[in-house]
Amino acid sequence: QQQVKQSPQSLIVQKGGIPIINCAYENTAFDYFPWYQQFPGKGPALLIAIRPDVSEKKEGRFTISFNKSAKQFSLHIMDSQPGDSATYFCAANSPVGGNMLTFGGGTRLMVKP
Amino acid sequence: DTGVSQNPRHKITKRGQNVTFRCDPISEHNRLYWYRQTLGQGPEFLTYFQNEAQLEKSRLLSDRFSAERPKGSFSTLEIQRTEQGDSAMYLCASRTTNTGELFFGEGSRLTVL
Fold first, then answer.
1. Mean pLDDT (whole number) for B3-32
2. Interface of chain A against chain B, CB under 8 Å?
3. How many Cβ pairs closer than 8 A exist between chain A and B?
4. How many angstroms separate the CA atoms of B48 and A2, rounded?
5. Which of A10, B35, B44, B65 could cysteine-pair with A108, CB 3.0–4.6 Å?
6. Mean pLDDT in order along chain A per 10 residues (113 residues)
7. How far, CA to CA in Å, does B104 sit from each of A16, B74, B98?
8. Is A85 exposed, middle or buried (0-12, 13-18, 19+ CB in 10 A)?
9. Which residues of B touch A51 (CB under 8 A)?
10. If contacts are CB pairs under 8 Å, which of residues 4-33 in chain B contact chain A?
11. Under an 8 A CB cutoff, do A42 and B107 touch?
């Protein structure tokens, strides 16, 4: 069964801290792992994504670490800011059946000033 | 604005009524997806279209749900005989065939009283 498990459900950090959100998956056929950021009342927006042949990808303050053997990947937010307060979703793409994304349950991040 | 457009943004209806949501994808995107998101959860896949063909449907899509994409442009999602359990955010997303990036609209929130 295709499933992506995300933790923690919620996270509070101080400004400048480095929140880390973790995801684990089962299906080794997944070929693309994006992270989405969602603000209240808005649709999810792509933040950063990685393919399984790469162990790390960095874009600005956001870094994905990917461990293929452990079937885990994580999002790190460097120098977090109050404006980063949002819900973050990891996802995994299946190349069969329409390139469907399966999402984790989400992590609600609050960055305190 | 050339993003994914959804309307109405919010619909309040009484149980048993029919509702229809519309999605206008990014113009060059031939794949269109519908997802459902309940409060505090990640988006769940409902169905997807490649051009005008509906190629995949989730088991979440009961017989009361129908989606169309005439001429491979905009799409509609209709829910007949709404139930309180249908209350959710309905998200539309689009992408091109050969890329993993999925662009979401801002969603249509359904409240069934």
1. 95
2. 6, 31-32, 34, 36, 41-46, 49, 51, 89, 91, 93, 97-106
3. 60
4. 17
5. A10
6. 87 97 94 94 93 94 96 97 97 83 95 96
7. 29, 14, 17
8. middle
9. 100
10. 4, 6, 31, 33
11. yes
To which residue do tokens 């206008």 refer?
Answer: B24
Chain B residues within an 8 Å CB radius of A105: 41-42
- Distance from the Cα of A49 to chain B's closest Cα (Å) equals 8
The alpha carbon dihedral of B50, B53, B55, B61 has a sign of positive
Q: Which residue of B has its CA nearest to A10?
A: B40
All residues of chain A having their beta carbon less than 8 Å from the beta carbon of residue B91 are 43-44
Residue A91, token pair as written in the block: 């996802």
pLDDT (0 to 100) of residue B72: 86
The label of the residue with tokens 């001429």 reads B71
Note whether A39 and A24 are within 8 A (CB): no
Q: How confident is the prediction for chain B on average, in pLDDT?
A: 93
Q: Which pLDDT does position A80 carry in this prediction?
A: 97
**Inter-chain residue contact A103 with B43, CB threshold 8 Å:** yes
3-state secondary structure chain B: CCCCEEECCEEEECCCCCEEEEEECCCCCCEEEEEEECCCCCCEEEEEEECCEEEEECCCCCCCEEEECHHHCCEEEEECCCCHHHCEEEEEEEECCCCCCCEECCCEEEEEC
How do A107-112 and A10-14 pair as beta strands? Answer: parallel
